[in-house]
Request: fold
Amino acid sequence: MTETDRDEIMLNALFDAARKDNRAEPSSNLLARVYADSEIMQPVEPKVGIERSVQRIGFWTAHRKSFMSLYSAIGLSIAAVGGIWIGILGSTSLMQDGIAVSLLSAGQAGYLSEIDTSYAFLLE
Amino acid sequence: MPYDKQSDIADDALLKLYANGDEVAAQVLTLRLTPRVFSQAFRMLGDRDEAEDVTQEALIRLWKVAPDWRQGEAKVTTWLYRVVANLCKDQMRKVRGLRLDVISEPADSTLGPVVQMQERARSNALQAALATLPARQRQAVVLRHIEGLGNPEIADILNVSVEAVESLTARGKRMLIKVLADQKEVLGFSDD
Reply:
């Protein structure tokens, strides 16, 4: 074996020792720092709807919108009151006793009995 | 995309995913590239703290260029090795000499104590010898013989021809042998 061969073997052994040296491995702290940097610097895609939420509304538009919602509320209230009124007036329990018998002919008794079973006796 | 699905993806494709907001891509790239970058920086500088700073800076530069990275054009590792080489060169201009005495990391416990000591002594001796080489030679030797890169890639990293890389590594090795000549016996290389 020549001197050059021996030198080559020595260098290869030293390179091998260097590759195995765990001091050349990064610490967990460094990995955490690098990962934190990557998170901070990562481009973020714009979220859908952000532009709409920050859109400014003009003074008149805001008032028109609030009036329109007021009309809706009034309409809803009228409908509710009307419904209650119809319900109360339409109730058979508030009808005057015997009014149907006095007003209707025998032929119409069957029709009334379908509305209110208290008139069913007229069918007999 | 799940972590295990990304472990086989090429670096440049992962970088594209990272630029598109994929968090897992950032994790995979960090775990894949940090050891390579740190190893090169440590071999060049011989100091863990300085190597950590260089590693962090090199990877910050990578995260910055990610949105403009052209997939398939350049190799991410080659680009990174080049950045590390330049950062180390700058660092070496600022700080001269090795500080191996400040390193007190635990040794590899899978080896016997005598072997451990010898391996550590050999690694230290090589690191000290590397520090005597001119920066270009040191980079070429580290990338070729420790990081295991091919001459064409080293040529790309150092921005020189392949012939120049061969010349740099050959001269570097001759210099290492010369520097280590009187330590052969201590390091377990007797002439017998």
Summary: Confidence is low (pLDDT under 50) at residues 46-54 of chain A. Chain A touches chain B through 32 residues (CB under 8 Å). DSSP finds six helices and no strands in chain A. Residues 59-90 of chain A form the longest helix (32 residues).
